[in-house]
Amino acid sequence: NGGAVKEVYVTLHDKEFVELVDEPSTPLLAHRLEGLGFQLPDGYRGEVNLGVAPWMKRVADALDAGFVLTIDYGYEAAALYAPERSHGTLQTYYRHTQAASPYRRIGEQDMTAHVDFSSVMAHGTNSGLGVVGLESQSKFLDRLGFQRLLYRLRSKKLGQRERDSNVMAMRELVKPGGLGGFKVLVQEKGTGVTRLAEITPAHAGP
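User: That's the sequence. What structure does it adopt?
Assistant: Structure tokens below.
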């Protein structure tokens, strides 16, 4: 607001949860947004996860050599903080259906926000984790031989209902706009691997 970063707090008013916009509780919020490399317009609202840096350090410290896979909904910073997401990505779900407010059904609904994968990669790099690649779950599973596994499932001696059920469940994992839209970030430590092609099968056919 007015070119300055503000923070949204939650307080009680007449026994109801309400939002209060005030000065940030920590300068780290403004510091994170300054590191985006572009200016957010007045009125923009979004989420900043300050827990990424210490989490990445704990993960990196626990790993002598190997890979870290992070799978979730999210974007790199330029897409996450794009104008079309000027109201943020906070979502609530009640009984698997998207709900309207995080201040209703307290303790009975899930709340989620998209991951800033640019932040995860940057803090991972600072902690000694190299970036191998970032792509959609659909593409990543295809690299791992998804079509081959689907083909093998169809050839198994299963009842028609059981086979169809398993095929439908597998297809949900790669469905565009659904679980297939999850991002998969692969980071490494001490392996020398720099590309996803180095850790996935050469071909994914039957």
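DSSP finds seven helices and ten strands in the chain.
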